């Protein structure tokens, strides 16, 4: 390939760069008014040899990827974006507006049983943590949000928790369930401007639970 790429080569590069997943030659061609892109793909692959990124063909689909000999420089934990299920969204909202809260209390607010898997998803995402145990018979585990939850949703403290309209506008709620809307509005009203002594959004009041998170997260 010459030092000055052709318009077609530039168009192929742009198409692949913007693609969310690998594309076949036919798919690329369809984006470019039926142009024959096979030779251009081979030339581009040769052009990128030895660079920090490479154009590779995998299963007849083309994609840009990090050069294999540099992968160790970029190896890190990746946050996987996922859309929460309806149940997980409800549980996350309840924890955020009522923390610290036990699973039984979550179920009482939702009116339905909450599977342990739902809480596991939220804890795996790093948005909910085990915050200790309630000082009542059975000493149930209670849950609270994390600093990562505040960071992910752009909140300084829990006082910045959005109302129902803001949640819908952000695409975090499916605006079809009036009952859940009413529940969220009630939660927002009950939690309006909670007092917090730091950016974690925790109340100044002494809750009726013992914070033994270290014991929970590191059982002997």
UniProtKB/TrEMBL annotation:
GO terms for biological process: cell division; chromosome separation. This is SMC-Scp complex subunit ScpB. Coiled coil: none annotated. It comes from the Bacteria. PANTHER family: SEGREGATION AND CONDENSATION PROTEIN B. Keywords: Cell cycle, Cell division, Chromosome partition, Cytoplasm. Residues 178-220 are annotated as: Disordered. Gene3D superfamilies: Winged helix-like DNA-binding domain superfamily/Winged helix DNA-binding domain. Residues 192-220 have a biased composition (Acidic residues). InterPro entries: ScpB_csome_segregation, WH-like_DNA-bd_sf, WH_DNA-bd_sf.
